[in-house]
Amino acid sequence: MRKITLKHKLPAGLDKQFADELNSSQRAAATAPDGYNLILAGPGSGKTRVITFRVGFLIARGVPADSILLATFTRRAAREMVGRLGELVGNQAGRVWAGTFHHVGNRLLRGAAKDLGFQSNFTILDSEDQTDLLRLAMDDAGLVDKSKLAPKASQLQHLISFAINTRRPLAAVVESEAADQAEWLPEIEKVADAYARRKLASNCMDYDDLLTQWLRLLDEFPNRLEEQGRMFRHILIDEMQDTNALQIEIVEKIAAAGRGNLTAVGDDAQSIYRFRGANYDNILKFPDRHLDARVFRLEVNYRSTPQIVAFTEASIAHNQSGFPKQLVSARNDGPLPVVVATADVYEEAALVCQQILEAHDQDVPLGRMAVLYRNHYDSVVLQGELLARNIPYTVRSGVRFFEQAHVKDVMAFLRVVLNPRDEASWRRLFVLLPGVGPAKAGAVYQRIASEADPLKALATAETMAIVPSKSRGLFAAFVNDLNLIRATDPEHHPARAIEAVLKGGYPGTIRQKYDKADNRIKDVEQFAVLAAKYDSLERLLAELLLAGDVYGMDAAGSEDPQDVLVLSTVHQAKGLEWSHVFVVRLVDEGFPHRRAMDEPGGEDEERRIFYVAVSRAMNELMLSYPSTISRGGYGPTVFSTPSRFLTEIRHDLYERVVLEHEFDRLNADDDDDEGEPPWTGRPLKSQPDRDSKT
Ligand SMILES: Nc1ncnc2c1ncn2[C@@H]1O[C@H](COP(=O)(O)OP(=O)(O)OP(=O)(O)O)[C@@H](O)[C@H]1O
């Protein structure tokens, strides 16, 4: 039969946009022929731009927009790409299947849930619902109250989810991720089964099901596989380096069943989500899995100055594996990255704040600057300094420090000791005890409120009578903790008071009540470090809490409420860029993360995290580390080792800067060069510390 090919016209101006906005390698990748394509690209090389243009190209070539699947790492990325795509192809952009794998899985499963034994109106469990259901499953498996050493719900959740996302047997995951829990394996497996049964019975799916059930559909229902193969003529995956085994199995199955059109975009050197099950091999072995794959390389960095690019490339060159790339900057020269050693964490915080304010005085908006760190708790002391200096900031890596539940709990301990009539704080503490709800908490407060010494009144038989009998032991321990906290003279030594909180029963409460307990406990330790700067609890509370509204305020001369400094873990900074980037706490015990170093490939993964951090900077990059660190406020102070990620870099690729104190300068002999510090460099003036240090 004779065929007529319907020709589609490129929308007006699209040709010109391809010519004006893409360089030749970007254009070649965006307009690649059908088939398997891998676009390997360094940081700042326009990956987002290229993948968006490729979708635009496909639509312009006549591929129906609703037959394109564009899988992104975050929903925000999908929104941004669809917005940009709209500028290229108009309202067809909204018809593309763009979103995270979970988002797309959810849409597809609604129409196919019945095949899998679910109803199409299945509910998606949020993480709290998940924990509740898992606790019930633990009960089914006889794991509740069995032993204090038995795995907790949050740990089980992680292990079950990790096994699913890495497509490994649960037993192997328990062995490698939680060897100390291996004796509980039979129970853990029972919990996993009971949890799955309960989800099915209650017509609920968790996030992982949106992928596992999707894959099940493809594996067990050949008609569904064929349907999806037909439906998705082109599949594009952004951030390929952070996909997990499950995600890749799904898309590769669909592509193979359909037309075999799969374009993956990513940077192997930015693969940083191994802890969530991402598999570095997904990108590294793509050419091995698809022998006919074309590989495109984007090697022009539009983001960073040549100095920053040279530094970042010198860092990643120390990794053992990865695709070789030759990244060049398209920008004009800028200053060398700066490396500064500070005396301690307080000086580091003061230095970063001062540099930020100076850049701000030179018209760099706060919103174009970011402070990045490896661990969320590394930001605590800095947050204290920012609040004290009225510099507005937002924390991408989570809730601002003083708004977190566990920090509020610790504050409540301090507050009731300082002001035993602080009802809200008492109530907050009482409900931390098992069996005490808001009503009982109110009754206990009423009982002690009228007493001359409410704290003393806590220990009386009348008060105890209000507490449920099973909680009395813990209540007595809590009263004991409060007395120990009071004995530290918290009014003058707030750090000692926080350390007393840490020595009492509260860490146990954290483990019982909250997820990520270890990190929360580290937060509280860092809170003690911050508090050691204060010799008055009242001032600490006033300075840190009353300044809590500083977000979006017209502080530091900023006129735009959105113009706030960004604080972020490196992981949360993925894909973003700022004019000025400060990477802090670069000590060998923290960045690289100590735990990661014990795992095979751990150092390379940590170096990739460092690479992501430094490659966020467009114009200026400052890297700092405290020469001494202490665990708690009054804990022993030890010398730190600068991160290997700094010391391994060729010295001419950065500028070492020594800190000079203003008062040193005033007193110094004019040209006395004797006793030069071992690390010499351009002196950087620092303001004397606030006089609050104890
Ligand atoms: N051809 C180009 N001409 C000029 N600027 C470009 C070009 N391509 C990309 N850019 C700019 O370079 C910067 C980095 O681009 P983009 O964010 O897409 O990079 P990326 O490869 O996704 O980076 P990363 O992987 O580091 O997150 C952006 O500011 C973008 O607008």
TrEMBL record:
Residues reported to bind ATP: A41, G42, P43, G44, S45, G46, K47, T48
GO MF: 3'-5' DNA helicase activity; ATP binding; ATP hydrolysis activity; DNA binding
UniProt-listed Enzyme Commission number(s): 5.6.2.4
Coiled-coil features, chain-numbered ranges: none
Reactions that this protein is recorded to catalyse: ATP + H2O = ADP + phosphate + H(+); Couples ATP hydrolysis with the unwinding of duplex DNA by translocating in the 3'-5' direction
Domain UvrD-like helicase C-terminal positions: 306-575
Cellular component, GO, one term: cytosol
Listed GO biological process terms: recombinational repair
Pfam families, A to Z: UvrD-helicase, UvrD_C
Top-level enzyme category: isomerase
Start and end residues of each stretch annotated as Disordered: 667-694
The keyword Disulfide bond appears for this protein: no
Record's keyword terms, sorted: ATP-binding, Helicase, Hydrolase, Isomerase, Nucleotide-binding
Residues spanning the signal sequence: none
Residue intervals of the UvrD-like helicase ATP-binding domain: 20-305
Keyword check for DNA repair: no
Record-stated family: Belongs to the helicase family. UvrD subfamily.
Name of protein: DNA 3'-5' helicase
Species of origin: Paludisphaera borealis
Lineage, highest ranks first: Bacteria, Pseudomonadati, Planctomycetota, Planctomycetia, Isosphaerales
This protein's encoding gene: pcrA_1
